Amino acid sequence: MAQPAQDDIADGTNEHTQDMNAMLFEAVHRPLRAARVPVPRPAPGQLLLRVHACGVCRTDLHLLDGEVTVARPPRILGHQIVATVVGRSPAADPAAAGMGGLGGVGGVEKPFEMDAPRACVRARVGRRVGVPWLGWTCGECEYCRSGHENLCPRARFTGRDIDGGMAEYAVADERFCFPIPGGYPDEQAAPLLCAGLIGYRALRMCGEATRLGLYGFGAAAHILAQVARHQGREVYAFTRPGDEPSQAFARELGAVWAGDSDRLPPRALHAAIVFAPDGSLVPAALRAVAPGGTVVCGGIHMSDIPSFPYEDLWRERVVRSVANLTRADATEFLALAPEVPVRTSVTTYPLAAANEALADLRAGRFEGAAVLVP
C-alpha cells in the first residue's frame, strides 16, 4: 500500500489525519482484517479521495477464494468507489510527470495520453467522482491503440493491483475517475461503477436483441433490467431454482417473465447474459436462445462449462465473454443512467462489517447490491 510522505499533500489535505481505517486482504481463504494504515499519498497524476461508499462485488469473492489472483498482498479491495476529491500530487499531469507508486504497486514505464474520454482530468478539490475496476492501462499496446483498452495486457485493476475503496481514503489515476451523475446519493451510485458498467458492456454485445434473458438476478441484472426496458426490450429473468423473492424482484423491475434457471422461457430469446458464475448455465442459455442468438458470459470468473451437443450451438448461435470495461463505456453509461432513470436497490454495511457483507453476498441474502459506508 502506498505510504504518505511527511510533507503536506497539495490543495490543503495536510489537515487530514495521517492514518485511516481499512479492511485488508492478506491471504486467500482468510477474512479481511480491520486495520489502521497510513493515508496514501497521491503520486503524479493521481487524486487523493475521501471515500463515501464502496460497492461489494462478486469479484471480491473471487479474490478471496483465489479464483482471481491478488499478486501482492496485503491489498485493500473494493472497486466501486464513490468519493470526494480532497487532494492531488503537486505534479498532477501524468503526461508530464510519470505515474509511479500506483496504490502500492511499482511505477509504470512510460506515461501516455489517449484519445479515449478523459473523464474528469483536473478534477477540482471537492468534486464527487467514481472509481471503477479498470485503474490503469499502458496506452501503447495494440489493444489500447485500437479502442480496446479493457484488454490491455499490462492493465491494473482497482482493488486487485491498486488499493481500492474498502477504506476511508484512496488514491486513483485521475484519467480513470468519472463524474457521478447528479441525483444519486453516494450509496445508490456505487453499484453503477461495476455492476452497471459491466452489465452495459455485456448488453452492447447483444446487439439489437429484443427478447433478452438474464441468468442470475443480482447487482448487475437489476440495473441492466431497467436499462433494457428503457430501450424497449423484453426481459426474461432466470434465478436459482425456487428463489421466489428474486423472481418477484425481477418482475417488479419490469421483467415479462421470471423463473428457475433450469427452465426454458415461454419464448425463444434473441440473446442471453449469464451473470452467475456457474458454467452449467451456458448450455442452458444456448438452449433458450433462438438461431442466430448470442450468449454473453458477463463475469470475470466462471466454473467450468460442461460439454454439450453441437446442435445447441448450431444455426449460428454465438457464445462470447465480456472483459473489464473501457473509459468510453463508463462515459456512455453514466450519462445514460439518469435518463432511464436507473434506481439501485442497496443494502448498506459499515466498513468494519465488510466480511459480513461478503458473506451475505455469497449466500444471496439481499436483493440488488451491497455497499460499504466508511
Task: Write up this protein.
With 374 residues, this protein is α/β, with parallel strands linked by helices. The protein folds into 2 domains: 209 residues, Quinone Oxidoreductase, Chain A, domain 1, CATH 3.90.180; 126 residues, NAD(P)-binding Rossmann-like Domain (Rossmann fold, 3-Layer(aba) Sandwich). The protein contains 10 helices and 18 strands. The strands form 4 sheets. Strands 3, 5, 6, 9, 10, 17 and 18 form a 7-stranded mixed β-sheet that branches. Helix 7 links the parallel strand 14 and strand 15. Helix 4 packs across helix 5 and helix 4 packs across helix 9. The radius of gyration is 20 Å and the shape is globular. The N terminus is likely disordered.
Jot down its keywords.
374 residues; alpha/beta; Quinone Oxidoreductase, Chain A, domain 1; Rossmann fold; 2 domains; 7-stranded mixed beta sheet; 6-stranded parallel beta sheet; globular; disordered N terminus
Summarize the SSE layout with pairings:
Elements: E1 19-25, E2 33-38, E3 46-56, H1 58-64, E4 75-76, E5 81-88, H2 94-97, E6 128-131, E7 134-136, E8 156-157, E9 169-173, E10 178-179, H3 186-189, H4 195-204, E11 211-215, H5 219-230, E12 234-239, H6 244-252, E13 257-260, E14 269-274, H7 281-288, E15 289-297, H8 310-313, E16 318-321, H9 327-336, E17 346-350, H10 354-363, E18 369-373
Parallel strand pairs: 11-12, 11-14, 12-13, 14-15, 15-16, 17-18
Antiparallel strand pairs: 1-2, 1-4, 3-5, 3-9, 3-18, 5-6, 6-10, 7-8
Helix pairs in contact: 4-5, 4-9
